Amino acid sequence: TSNMKNKIIYNLLLASFLFKIILRYPLTSHSNGTDSFEQMWSSNSIVENGQIIWLRDIFSYMGISAYSIESSLPVFVASVKLLSNSNIESTALIISFFLSSLLFLLIFLISGIFSSDPYYRIFSSHVSSTTFLALRYGDWSIETRYLFLILSILLVFIILSNNISTYKKINLISITLFS
Predict the structure, then answer these.
(1) Residues 6 or more apart from 144 whose CB is under 8 A from it?
(2) Which residues pair with 62 in a beta bridge?
(3) CA R_g for the chain
(4) Distance between CA atoms of 156 and 170, rounded to whole angstroms?
(5) CA distance 122 to 111
(6) First to last CA, the chain
């Protein structure tokens, strides 16, 4: 019976994951959003020029300098574009699927900290990855907000899974959320 229960859990997890992928299947022939267009343009600029043309000083990496944008996501997209040897819109789709899958996995892992019930973990990862904002940001677009959200959840998971005092955990999570 334990083997049968594990099969049911794995099948539910797989079905929820596939449902999430189906919801993100693109309905348009190109990517969405002006932020996505800006990120793709910046990534193409890095690939075509072989350098980040808006870098002037160390503050340009974060987008703090005048006439600069933050460089983390365009560099990531340009790297994936070069590694996959595809056009920029296909790369945006690949990254969109990857980030939404990472969100699904992270919510599954972080919910395991609060409850060991596998059905709760599957339900929470399914619900969180099918919310309006998760679907909007994961729908063939490259958004810095979505990457920030996923990396924040990863940081919270790392904080909660370590053996430190509850007081320090609350402080670290509040610093993460309010910074």
Answers:
(1) 35, 39, 70, 72, 73
(2) 70
(3) 19
(4) 10
(5) 9
(6) 48
Q: Exposed e or buried b for every residue in 41-73, given b needs 16+ CB within 10 A? A: ebbbbbbeeeebebeeeeebbeeeeeebbbbeb
Per-state percent for the chain, helix, strand, coil, to nearest 5? 75, 0, 25
**pLDDT single digits (tens) 127-172:** 888 888 777 777 777 888 888 888 888 888 888 887 777 777 777 7
| pLDDT, tens only, 30-62 | 777 777 888 888 899 999 999 888 888 888 777
Q: Of 148, 107, 159, nearest to 173 (Cα)?
A: 159
Q: Where on the phi/psi map is residue 165: left (φ > 0), alpha (ψ -120 to 50), or beta?
A: beta
pTM of the model: 0.79
E strand or H helix that includes residue 138: none
Q: With H, G, I as helix, E, B as strand and everything else as coil, classify residue 82.
A: helix
Neighbouring C-beta atoms of residue 34, cutoff 10 Å = 8
Quote the CA–CA distance of 177 and 179 in Å, as a whole number: 6
